[in-house]
Amino acid sequence: SEMCIETGSIGIALFSGFLICNVLLKPLVDRFRPCELHPEDLLFSCPVDPSFPSGHTTASFAALVAFSYWYPKAGLSLLTLGILIAWSRLYLFVHYPSDVASGMLIGTLCACIGIALVRRAFKPLTLLERWHEEILSFVGRAQRRRTNIDRRKRCGLRNANEPFLGKFQKREIVDLSLIHISEPTRQAEIS
User: Which of 37, 42, 55, 149 is deepest in the core (most CB within 10 A)?
Assistant: First the structure.
């Protein structure tokens, strides 16, 4: 169940980042890449899709923020990796700094949305599980009480709320006031 929640939040973060970045914003803004304007100093061929926002940075920050929420100890190393990915997009001359900054922001927001949706979706399940346990324990207690009352009636007890002594034991009524003698009274009787 925990693994499902973690994986679900990361998956929602990545998918929503893809939809916002690659499907919505890139075709809408249609920004030229820096490598298209200055093709002379490239390490490899220039990508053909629009520049704004950075899809790699969006995906890396969506995954790292969602993963860091569930595993806080890994947060610093994942943040370092995310910053290195963002820097590589600038170093390779395929994005402007504003592309990378917006990718960081969109990725972080998508991770927050993914975490919130998954927590919201799995919260009623835990509430239902608690209700289910309470109902089962209530039904179990009622069933045990009903069984004990039936057993008492079969053994001939007039009042079903009297303590159950067993099927073959005799009922003896003992006056407890005779048994309990306080300490000063006992010393007075001995003297």
Answer: 55
Tell me which DSSP letter residue 45 carries. Answer: P
Q: What angle do CA 101, 94, 110 make, to 5 degrees?
A: 35
Chain centre to alpha carbon of residue 121: 9
Stretch (H or E) spanning 148: helix 97-154
Q: What is the pTM of this model?
A: 0.61
- Are 27 and 50 in contact by the 8 Å Cβ rule? The answer is yes
Among the listed residues 144, 147, 53, the one whose alpha carbon sits nearest the alpha carbon of residue 94: 53
The radius of gyration of the chain from alpha carbons, rounded to an integer in Å, stands at: 36
Query: Which tens digit of pLDDT belongs to each residue from 38-62?
Result: 777 777 788 888 888 888 999 999 9
Per-residue model confidence as pLDDT tens digits over 101-138: 999 999 999 999 999 888 877 766 566 666 666 777 77
d(CA 45, CA 35): 9
What is the distance between the alpha carbons of residues 142 and 135, in angstroms, rounded to a whole number?
A: 10
CA-to-CA dists, residue 129 to 26, 76, 175, 180, angstroms: 43, 35, 49, 49
